[in-house]
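From the shared-data thread, chain only:
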Amino acid sequence: MKALIRYTLANLFVSQRFVAPTFLYLALLAVLTSNDSGPLVGVYAATAGSLLAAAVWIAVAVANAEDPAARWVALANARRTSDVTAATAVAALLYEAALGIVGLLYPLVSGHHTVSASALGIGAAAELTCAAVGTGLGLLCARPVIVRTGVSTLTGIALVLSVLLIKELPPVSPMLRRMTGGSSVRAAVPNALPFLGFAILGVAALYGCGVVAHRLGRRRD
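Structure, as tokens:
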């Protein structure tokens, strides 16, 4: 499995498909968080939402980095065909984790905020949630589930808007609305605990999307 993850990451970097979503994320960070002096948790809501959009694109980039022939070789050499989908998800999450660290630290140097362990914990949980959900959505938009680039792009945009704007759809929309409710987070543990629940829901959503993507993709491979 480790070798498959390394192979998947190597394909991503060689193909340079990571450049565009990385630029999108960094541009959103610069626009939404630079010179901000509001509550840090509210700023982290912006960074997490930005990571959601980038994560969908990154997952698609990871899945589409190799051509179909190379994918068949990977499927033939993997112990289980599900390992290929799992390696795609893990590779995408590893790269998104690096972006998430940038998202946690950049607001601290670009704006003026009161820093607390609780705020940092909430920011980390929010970015994990959005990275997991975005990766899951990206798996549903990538090959072999969706082959055509235009359809993949429109589907990704529609899914991102859905999880951001539908208030009743957990975990992203309720979490971001809770973060932007205007209350400054000061207590260390109690205020941060609900966001651990959101992160668990995000990982569960990733698992569910991965299972669906694997089963749909298996019919096309």
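Residues 81-110 form the longest helix (30 residues).
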